[in-house]
Specification:
Blueprint lengths: L2 E6 L2 E8 L2 H7 L3 H10 L3 H6 L23 E3 L2 E5 L4 H16 L5 E7 L8 H9 L1 H6 L6 E6 L1
Parallel strand pairs: 4-5, 5-6
Antiparallel strand pairs: 1-2, 2-6, 3-4
């Protein structure tokens, strides 16, 4: 569960794998593709051409939630979330991913975080929270996660 550095042409990437997230992406042949998504995630047409669905909804229950029940993108059991604002939003995405995993609707969650000064959500915070004793005891996250932070 260590942080790794990787180069994506002109981008510097930092990566973190939790509960085998990286290995799952490798098996699905989606690891390199996920790395490349840091450059195109905003272009929904390009994402759709690669098979990423931005309308995929998952079932929590029949009650209406105040927050969306969909992922930014979904493909072949992989939920993708791009977060460039608050860590609290990243936590909500993490909970959605964990629910989807518990309901056998996804195999792994992927986070893309831009490395910008104002970004409260980032790889180091996600790693710290996932590995903290508090989370592991009271908020155990079962879903495998792969985090890519790019500059």
């Amino acid at each position: 569960m260590k942080k790794e550095k990787y180069s994506n042409h002109d981008q510097k990437l930092e990566e973190y794998s939790y509960k085998g997230g990286k290995e799952i992406l490798k098996k699905k042949n989606l690891l390199d593709e996920c790395r490349k998504l840091t450059k195109i995630w905003e272009d929904s047409e390009q994402m759709k051409e690669l098979g990423w669905d931005d309308e995929h909804k998952f079932r929590i229950d029949k009650k209406k939630l105040s927050r969306p029940k969909r992922f930014d993108y979904y493909k072949d059991g992989v939920a993708l979330e791009h977060e460039q604002k608050q860590q609290m939003d990243a936590r909500w995405h993490l909970m959605k991913m964990d629910i989807g995993y518990q309901k056998n609707e996804l195999d792994v969650g992927v986070f893309l975080f831009p490395k910008i000064p104002r970004n409260d959500a980032n790889l180091d915070r996600m790693k710290k929270e996932l590995e903290s004793k508090l989370y592991q005891k009271y908020f155990p996250i079962e879903v495998p996660i792969f985090v890519i932070q790019y500059k």
